[in-house]
Write a structure and sequence with these properties.
By secondary structure, the protein is an all-alpha fold. It is built from 13 helices and no strands. Helix 2 runs antiparallel to helix 3 (31-55). The mean pLDDT is 90. Keywords: Membrane, Transmembrane, Transmembrane helix.
């Protein structure tokens, strides 16, 4: 059970949604969807394994979230090493078969460097955000477009979409604000402080949603579900900003995570329905 927990299997479901979104954007389907989804998920498993193993030495000791394996969890490092090697090989193999090998390599490198010391991008101002956006949205979305579409014409759209989606999950980090401060990390939200982080998150939502709506007039892909989710997060940023107690802020953010995380995990089903409606897929 400890090893299943180490893999954090539920965390990788949104990746499938991002890849299906790329298929919708391209209006193309093929076996590359399955290959790239399997490759990205296997690499993501490796990334989360490293994150769990490193974080349990500091920030996870203070975390509220029970999903983490914890410092006292007994693990056989030979088994951990085998799992690391297995999922790395599978991830790169599936990426290669899908035609996105170098994107898989890039995803693996950035993902590992996000947690691995001494680089540990997670603990570096600004770089933590860039790494998160790259691994969760940018690379999975752009890989198929680089081969099957027009990468240059898609960059602005992808950046705006990535910022909008990231602003929705930024409170995941804020919910662990106290733990990260106690661990001595220099992540963006720690350096900014809680108040400035909330201001940053709110204006990021407003700016990205406004830009996303404007792109609609240029016939770019559109999703009202994602817009409503972002607007909900903007309202929550304001709600948290008005709270005087940081403890109550974090408790509210933890409730937010419990609501939004399951919503993010239905993204693959949302995009599959969309693909059937637009007849991109047929029964």
């Amino acid at each position: 059970m400890n090893y299943i927990k180490l893999l954090r299997l539920d965390e990788h479901i949104p990746l499938i949604g991002v890849i299906l979104a790329a298929s919708l954007y391209l209006r193309q389907t093929g076996m590359w969807i399955i290959g790239w989804a399997l490759g990205a998920i296997c690499i993501s498993i490796v990334v989360f394994m490293v994150n769990e193993l490193v974080d349990r030495e500091d920030t996870d000791k203070y975390s509220w979230n029970p999903v983490h394996i914890g410092k006292n969890t007994r693990l056989n490092m030979k088994i951990v090493g085998f799992l690391f090697f297995l999922f790395t090989i599978l991830g790169l193999l599936f990426s290669y078969l899908a035609g996105f090998f170098w994107w898989g390599i890039l995803l693996w490198i950035i993902g590992i460097m996000y947690s691995l010391k001494p680089v540990r991008l997670k603990a570096r101002f600004g770089l933590d955000i860039l790494a998160q956006i790259s691994c969760a949205i940018f690379i999975p979305f752009l890989a198929p477009i680089s081969t099957l579409g027009n990468l240059r014409n898609t960059l602005v759209f992808t950046l705006i979409l990535s910022l909008m989606l990231w602003s929705v999950v930024f409170p995941y980090q804020l919910a662990d604000y106290e733990a990260d401060v106690r661990a001595g990390l220099k992540s963006t939200h720690v350096v900014l402080g809680m108040k400035n982080s909330l201001i940053f998150g709110f204006f990021l939502v407003v700016g990205s949603v406004s830009s996303y709506v404007m792109l609609r007039f240029f016939n770019y892909s559109w999703s009202i579900f994602l817009v409503l989710l972002a607007i909900f997060s903007a309202a929550m940023y304001l709600h948290w900003y008005r709270m005087k107690s940081q403890k109550k802020q974090q408790e509210s953010m933890q409730s937010y995570v419990r609501i939004v995380k399951p919503l993010s995990q239905i993204l693959p089903f949302y995009f599959l329905v969309w693909m059937f409606i637009t007849k991109l897929l047929a029964f």
